[in-house]
Amino acid sequence: MMTAEDPEVLYWYRHLQGNHREWTKRILTESVLHFAAPQTLNDPFDCRVHFRSSFSLKELKHKYSTLANKNMPHLNREQRRAKVAADLKAVDPQGLLSFMTSQLQAKVNTTGVLCLSATDSNILLWSHYAAGHKGLCLKFAATRYTPFFGLAQRVKYSQDYPQPDLLGASPEEQVDAFLLTKATDWMYEEEWRIIDHDKGPGGQVFPKEMLLGVIFGALMKEEDKEAVNTWLQERKHPVPLYQASVASDSFSLRIDPYKP
């Protein structure tokens, strides 16, 4: 969840090519955002469950004993020890690991993910997600008090897969660990995600007043800008327009108020 030190706005890069034109229009006219299915994301490592390959019976016994102490208060010490020993006697650690991995991956795959960014001026984001700067970037209010976007969580970047507590963490906590950890190569995206365990993938309506602005890409066609402006007229709340342009003195972008 967000804290006082987190950004107050988040961004979503879009373009108007193919089916995306109609989807973008729906965002602007109906305030509907699409939560993606994890398996559709463009990084083959993203949202994939990878528990460590070695899982010792000793470690499993320790974790299970801790849980037994907490969840079986009606048993005395000797009874708990006997139950732990009996339950673990036939356990195959690797078989258990494989089973838990497949079960958690199935749960991950039914979760909805909305991917946002804390920056509106990253050249690579404009290139990758806004059709080579021909698209646009949407600006949303996203403080810790904000409805909908206030649920966003910061993505962590790491060289290693996350290792949530197999027995101590809830299924939702384990899912979040894999949905909110990406390779360090993606750090430039400054990504935040809203994770929906209940509704899963699909469209969701956000509060209309949370859209604070639309930024036109540096190479966006004039007819596309006119179309976006027309769509925005259907909203009750006015939405400021901005223009990204190539800076003259560095490899960077300027974001200024749009002047037709």
Number of strands: 12
Distance between the termini: 38 Å
Written as H for each helix and E for each strand, in order along the chain, the element string is EHEHHHEHEEEHEEEEHEE
- Give the strand order of the largest sheet, numbering strands 1, 2, ... along the chain: 1-4-10-11-12
Helix fraction, binned, reads: 25-40%
Radius of gyration based on Cα positions? 23 Å
Number of helices: 7
User: Which structural class best describes the helix and strand composition?
Assistant: alpha+beta
**What form results from the Cα inertia axes?**
elongated
Tally of distinct domains: 2
Short description:
The protein has 260 residues and is α+β, with helices and mostly antiparallel strands. It has seven helices and twelve strands. Helix 2 packs across helix 3 and helix 4 packs across helix 6.
Descriptive tags:
7 helices; 260 residues; 12 strands; alpha+beta; 32% helix; 3-stranded antiparallel beta sheet
Your description of this structure?
With 260 residues, the chain is of the alpha+beta class. The chain has two domains: 9-42 and 111-257, no CATH class; 57-107, no CATH class. The chain has helices at 20-30, 57-71, 77-88, 93-109, 123-129, 171-179, 222-232, and strands at residues 9-14, 32-35, 112-117, 136-141, 153-154, 156-158, 181-183, 191-196, 202-205, 211-216, 241-246, 253-257. Helix 2 packs across helix 3 (77-88) and helix 4 (93-109) crosses helix 6. The chain is elongated, with a radius of gyration of 23 Å. The mean pLDDT is 90.
